[in-house]
Amino acid sequence: MTVKIMTDSTSYIDEKLRSELDIKVIPLYVSFQDISMKETEIENEEFYEMMEQKGIPVSSQPSLGELYEEMVKIVAKGDDLLCIFLSSEMSGTYASACKVKEKVLEKYQDAKIHILDSRSNSMQLGFATIVAARAAKMDKPLDKVKEIAEQNIKRSRFLFIPDNLVYLEKGGRIGGASALIGKILKIIPVLTVRDGKTTILKTVRTKVKAIKAMIDKMLQDHLDYGIQEIIVHHINCYEQAKDLANNLRGKLKIDVTIADIGPVIGLHVGPGAIGIVYYTKKDIKI
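Given the sequence above, the corresponding C-alpha cells read:
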C-alpha cells in the first residue's frame, strides 16, 4: 500500500516530472461558443491563437463522475490518496472533490483519502503537489505527506505581471475599479495570490519597473526565508521568460526552470503575462 497523489491540470507541472513522480492529473475544461475541450487536449500556442480569433472562453471544473472514477481507480487497489486542487476561491473543483470523497467512502469504507485546498494555482499548486509526491515516493504515511504539502503552501509565493488588465477584468478575477484605473493611468500591477484570491501587491508605471519590483520582492524573500526552488511562468512570451530566468539564476545561484501557463488560468490573465513561483525553507509571512 502506497500514497498516491492527485492534482488538477492548472498545476502545470512538467509532463516528465509528473511521470517520474506518478502524479495523477485531472483536467479542467475551456469552452468557446462552438467548441469545448480539456485544457490538456490543446497546445498552449494553438489555444491563445484560438482565443485571439474567438474571444475569451469560459473555464469549467471536472465532472463529479470523472473525479469519482479516478479516485476509485486508486483506492480500489488499496492505496491511500492525497488530492491537491486549485483554490476553492477560484474553482468548484475542491468542493466537488470533497463531495466525491464521501461517495467513494460509502463503497470503500476503509479507504484513506485527504482533499487539500492549495489556495492557489499554477506552480504554487504544482510545488505543493511535487513535494507531496516526493514524500510519497519515500514511503511517508498519508498524514505526513499531507503535512509536507501544507507546509509548502505556507512557504510559497506566486508573483505575476499581466501585460494588461483586460482579461482579469472580463473574467472577474480582479476588481473592475482596479482594472479601470490601470487603463486610464497606464498602471501595471504586480499581482499575487493571497487568501486564495488574486490581489495587488504593488503598482508601477511600466512593465520593466513591475518586473524589477517582482524581483526585489523575491530577493527579499530569499534573504528572509531562503528560496529552495523557483520557476518562471509565462503566457506566450518565452523570450521574456528566458531573460528573466537567466537574470534570476545570476542573482540566486540556483537552477531556474521555465513553464508556460495553460488555457484555464491563461484565459483569466491573458497573453504576455510573466511571473515567478517559489517556495522557501521557512514559512513566509504575508
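Residues 207-225 form the longest helix (19 residues). Try to locate this feature in the C-alpha cell string yourself.
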